[in-house]
Amino acid sequence: MSQTSIPRLKACSDGELISKTLLEHGVLIVEGFLEASILEAFNREMDGPLAQERPDRKFLSPIYDHFFGSKTRHLTGLTGRSEIFREQIMQHPLYLELCEQILLPNCASYQLNYGHIFEIAPGAKAQALHRDGDCWSYLPSDFNVEVASILALTEFTEANGATLVIPGSHRWPRNKTLNYADAVPAEMSAGSALLYLGATAHAAGSNITTADLRRGMHVSYCLGWLRTEENNYLAAPINEVRNYSKTAQKLLGYAPHDAAPNGGCLGVFSMLDPMELMADGKL
User: Are 39 and 190 contacting, i.e. CB atoms less than 8 angstroms apart?
Assistant: First the structure.
């Protein structure tokens, strides 16, 4: 195992310092990211829906069946399931500050890419090391397309499969072989967050415990002109989306990506702003 450590900062740390550290190392643990009351309420809210999910479910193709394995429960569509997620977690000030600093140089606006809870049971094997940014593998690799995170909803330990991450791998060429020997387990307390860039290599670790379920949540944001990993428009019906906060609507992609005067606009409806149409009762 590499001796390279993952940088750590407190949630109260200066946002510019957090951004600078993330850009330098490609990964960072922020301790105390979620307040205890929010963490407790959100876990309680998700207990029931998560318990209804089958760990041996099927995915888009056999490739993803193998990637996710058969010992992990998954829960998606979080914006439609949880006001806590939609209004407090997704809009966390640090997330938005990092997106402003890291993503806006390459877009006119950013958006939620994915919200995804996972609960990994004993016996689960480690994932293949991968980069989330490879969802957009047709793009050049010399600029940031994604700000991502894994929130520890329960304690992450090396034994229960804490996320493995390779600090500095965001600077590697795409064709460089990824090796578990270079990876470090992101051990952290519940409520802490592992922040990383789309080009940073990582993987879920093996859960070698006998009874310890590891629950975490992937939350990520991407450039506003990209197709998102989850189709967030399907997470809730439009009748509900009308009542969401303006920031939530914008993060879910209902605002146009308007790059004028340096470019055109994307995501209009009837050549107008969908958010304004919703506000006027026309959509």
Answer: yes
